[in-house]
Write a structure and sequence with these properties.
Blueprint (H helix, E strand, L loop, with lengths): L1 E5 L6 H15 L3 E6 L11 E3 L14 H10 L5 E4 L6 H8 L3 E5 L28 H4 L6 H21 L2 E4 L2 H9 L4 E3 L19 E6 L8 H13 L4 E6 L5 H10 L4 E3 L8 H6 L3 E2 L15
Length: 300
Amino acid sequence: MYVIINEHKFSGGTEVFVQKLKAILLKNKLCHKSVYINGGDCDCSSNEINLKFQGSKWSKIFISPKLIIKLKKIINRNDICIVNNIFSSPISIYICLILNKAIRIIHDYSIVCPKSTCIKDDGMVCNGYKFEHCLLNCNYHDSKIQLLIKLMLTYITGWLGKKAIWQFISPSKKLAQYAKANGFNCVAIPNSVSLSIVKEHKINRFNHHYIYIGGLNKNKGLYDMLPAFAKFSASRNNVCLDIYGKISNVGDEKILKAYESEKIIYHGSVNHDEIQNILQSGYALLVPSLWMENYPTTVL
């Protein structure tokens, strides 16, 4: 039987995929548990487990015996684990999976880049830590020290991942190529996202709604787009930017509030089931990411 492991239950595109995958496996009676490492206060059904792991800021770099013990109680010896995003304590999770058959579906470039973006500080595309000198080309949160810590974590989790994971899968051909070039056993298999076909796309001709849906952080490019949209909308009365997504931290919230107006509106986090209805009346979808996108669910 399959056990799905992911950081959150609801957050972004990865979580949309995880819920779709879970539904397919449940329908075919192949999945008996979904585990969320840090699911927050989400409601869980009978076959879902929210660990609510409260690790320290050092949990990402060190081993958490508490998390390993919790996972060992959930995962049976013969279970096949399907791992997605693991942020809280990746080293602990990989150690826990060494005795199980495990598949990891990678959704971004963090497997080959300590910044997760595969974009250097000068804006040029990079090829991953195996081929680039990260400390010469980049910073992380404007710090070489933080980048060094992230680089060490990328090396350690990469080495452990190659031992613990039987097969890596990427929805993107480009990401799979990067993973293979950096030594990971990875194949490209596109995500299956089933959506009903919209028969009629009704655009309000009196007010053009530009829509952003996704995480609210620097890498998503939102904070470079906000001043540009403010300038663009200043001389236009019929435009509006509707922002939907989860705020990552207090600093992001302050930046967003500085630009909020009658033309730039933050609507908060949105349920996945509502996304289609929101997009149906939109004039344009904006995807201003400042990293190497691979297979964005919002665009699908």
